[in-house]
Design brief:
Helix content is 38%, strand content 17%. The protein has helices spanning 29-41, 56-59, 62-69, 140-156, 173-196, 202-209, 218-231, 236-239, and strands at residues 9-11, 18-22, 45-50, 73-74, 88-91, 94-100, 109-113, 118-122, 161-164. It is elongated, with a radius of gyration of 19 Å. InterPro entries: LACTB2_WH, Metallo-B-lactamas, RibonucZ/Hydroxyglut_hydro, Sec-metab_biosynth-thioest, WH-like_DNA-bd_sf.
């Protein structure tokens, strides 16, 4: 589910003494201390601990990492220290713009690095494959809107590279986001067809629509199916589908 594992990103201007760390990852003391050692080897210190969202593979170790670095964990929210849509963080001279991209989860956020034409997407866009819309917290309508927001950046050339939460760096950013939008449209068509064929449970839809996907990822696919069914409230067949 995490491809090659969770990517922990270390962000800094060249030669800067200030560093932001995005998604410290699971509660793995060895990993957390390795990140700190990497920063210290640069003669720098961690000034910001940031989260793309609250799933444990990204955030479980964040509290401990903040304790080790004397920072506070910042994620999207309404609190005084929380991240907000449109705000800009200053990590030394590095600007990090906050872009709310809910859909995978309600608290998903991306970080835009204008100087590098780069965006960190967490699980909104992965380095390979596609992500799950984690129903009920994840909402497909929100996810599609977030993809369109990202497409407006990639389509204009403001963003040309994606640093994902899992998998390799994506250098063809616009092509990747366009593919994600097409993929979601295709999956919706497949779910509609499954409902029209008489499937009445989410599990039946998964068996039909995700037949070419390894069974170990079917539980995640089921969440996406439920999110797609919720997105199709006007369909009479969708209304008959249950969680069973």
């Amino acid at each position: 589910m995490t491809l090659d594992g969770t990517n922990t990103w270390v962000l800094a201007e060249p030669g800067s003494g200030a560093v932001a760390v995005v998604d410290p990852g699971p509660l793995d003391e060895q990993h957390l201390r390795a990140v700190i050692s990497l920063v210290e080897e640069r003669g720098a210190r961690v000034t910001h601990t940031l989260l793309t969202h609250g799933h444990a593979d990204h955030a479980e170790g964040a509290g401990r990492f903040a304790e080790l670095t004397g920072t506070r964990v910042q994620a999207i929210g309404d609190g005084h220290d929380d991240l907000r849509e449109g705000s800009v963080l200053h990590v030394g001279d590095l600007e990090v713009a906050v872009l709310a991209t809910p859909g995978h989860t309600s608290d998903s956020v991306s970080f835009v690095l204008p100087a590098d034409n780069t965006v960190l997407t967490g699980d909104t866009v992965l380095g390979r494959g596609t992500t799950v819309v984690a129903h009920p917290d994840g909402v497909l309508a929100d996810y599609l809107a977030s993809l369109r927001r990202l497409r407006s950046l990639t389509g204009s050339g403001a963003v040309t590279r994606i640093l994902p939460g899992h998998g390799p760096t994506v250098d063809a950013a616009d092509e990747a986001v366009a593919y994600y939008l097409r993929h979601r449209a295709d999956r919706l068509d497949q779910v509609r067809a499954a409902l029209a064929a008489g499937d009445t449970t989410a599990d039946e839809v998964v068996e039909r629509v995700y037949a070419d996907v390894p069974r170990e990822v079917w539980p995640a696919a089921r969440l996406s199916v439920l999110a797609q069914i919720a997105y199709l409230p006007t369909s009479p067949d969708a209304a008959a589908v249950t969680d069973g």
